[in-house]
Amino acid sequence: MKVVFVPDEMTQGWIEIFAAEAPDLHLRIWPDIGDGDAECAICGAPPPGLFARLPRLRVFFSLAAGVDHLDLGQVPPHVAVVRMVDDSLSEAMAEYVVMAVLAVHRDLVSYIDCQQRAEWRRLPEVRARDRRIGMLGLGVLTRAALARLAPFGFPLSGWSRTQREIDGVACFSGADGLRDMLAATDILICLLPATPTTRGMLGRRVFATMPCGSAVINASRGALLKENDLLAALDEGQLSAAVLDVFAKEPLPPQSRLWCHPRVLLTPHIAAGVDPRGAVRSVVAQLRRTGRGDAIAHTVDRQLGY
Ligand SMILES: NC(=O)c1ccc[n+]([C@@H]2O[C@H](COP(=O)([O-])OP(=O)(O)OC[C@H]3O[C@@H](n4cnc5c(N)ncnc54)[C@H](OP(=O)(O)O)[C@@H]3O)[C@@H](O)[C@H]2O)c1
Asked: Is 221 a catalytic residue?
């Protein structure tokens, strides 16, 4: 099978990893693409001219979990777009979600604030069984996070576009389902993809539907969150805390109020980075499937945008 790899600064060293993991795979390295008869391309973001120069392309492997950075309209309709799904990415996201949930659940946000002021103050403890977790999205990353959260004993629920069934998780879908879940959620975790339908959905209306004093964790994409609505909800006490990994503008501008808000913990988009070896193994497994004529996993639905 003829495969083109487009290296960039994010994928330094990947050519060597491909050589170690799949010595039989002869990658053509962009822009040196030979006859232009490759059927598969692997890259972060497609460079200008990629699709025009590869008329026989069948599969485009994107090296990110989300595809919101791609202009899907630029990809010829017959080319399957495959997103990155890899166990190490899922495990990293599960760790981040557990860290953020425990930080909120055990009042770390308040204790950090107290520490800044050298204030010795004990807050009432809430048991995990009394802290209700609601997940927005029930995809690959959410399921990994739910598996890690389950042993703590939190009541778990989740909302998705289609109705799902997951053991030990109350599953919701649709507008009524969203309202019902939000009304019974103390910690809301967003792992929805950024699509035309989800952009801006984490805003005033969602926060107002949640119980007073609940918290929000966003580890999906900054485009989902209306940051001013979040700040207002925190200032008013409708929300008690937020843990944010992603932002409308990245890097987060120094003048953003989020940096120094006492109810916000933030990280610089590090929840789950692509692990080079895991990613290469995942792409190689998919290439082998393609070579055998088997169905490829994790293809993107262009209409839905994820
Ligand atoms: N911060 C980071 O470092 C980082 C790292 C990796 C990924 N991410 C983000 O995490 C996102 C989720 O990844 P994933 O692999 O879990 O995605 P996924 O497997 O595609 O799952 C997406 C979930 O969202 C649901 N969904 C999509 N649109 C919806 C809508 N309009 N209403 C209700 N539910 C909707 C889907 O519903 P159905 O089940 O019905 O399809 C599915 O359950 C990625 O898109 C990316 O933006 C962030």
From this structure: yes
